[in-house]
Design goal:
The protein has about 300 residues and is an alpha/beta fold. The chain has twelve helices and eight strands. Helix 2 links the parallel strand 1 and strand 2.
Amino acid sequence: MSYHKPVLLNESVDALVLNPDGIYIDCTFGGGGHSRAILEKLSSKGRLFSFDQDVDAVNNNIEDDRFQLILSNFRFIKNQLRFYGINKVDGILADLGVSSHQFDTAERGFSTRFEGRLDMRMNQTQSKSAWEVINKYDEKDLGIILRKYGEIKSGFKWANIIVRERKENPINTTEDLKTVLKPVIPSYKENKLHAQLFQALRIEVNDELTALEDMLLQTGDIIKEDGRLVVISYHSLEDRLVKNYIKKGMFEGEPERDIYGNWYAPFKPLRSKVILASEEEVEDNSRARSAKLRIGIKNNG
């Protein structure tokens, strides 16, 4: 739990595991909180495959014959499962975003609270880091990232300041970046705007939204009829993709309807309203405040 305190644990796992003998996927292993709860619900015949691209997660590996940790981005879920001879599963869980361990490890550069190198890589073996985005991207591309992924209205103005400042000296740390932008960030909005800035960089570094789309598009082929897709998201960009995919089978636009006005989607929502954390959980774990849980049931065909 010190590595990462799972959010909406009971709600997500109860919705996921309907067949104790089934095969399940935890797309975001992290500290293993959700995985351990899933294993508690499985019989001796059940199996669980968990994914994580962060090598630090290996330290939380579970010694259980029913369990397999796969060090990989979940966007490769189908290929990785095929290696283990798995074509169909009973349910998939994804708890998106950043683990508490990643936020709390200053040198990883995820947190606005600590000074660390501009890193933000979930997969520490990849080359692109937040340093490269800040110091190498051209002004237009940087502005687009800040506007699109951080939903920062002044994104292009911020990009101009960053590019101007980096000509004098490289922007190496999280504190360097915050200092460069201090003149255009009002103190009363500092926490919110810093969070949006770091979110934008993190999404770009890790290609998070495209990876999420890649994973979701594969779930329709992998999950068995009446199986469950359970996703916990933490910001509107993620949640919109999950909501649209479960409801329409696509990420934007409207599905093609037949002459009766119907359309086919791989899943149907379990319930119309999103599931939020209780007041008690939010009080105990502030990260739960922004969490949204959506559940899809696999359709026929």
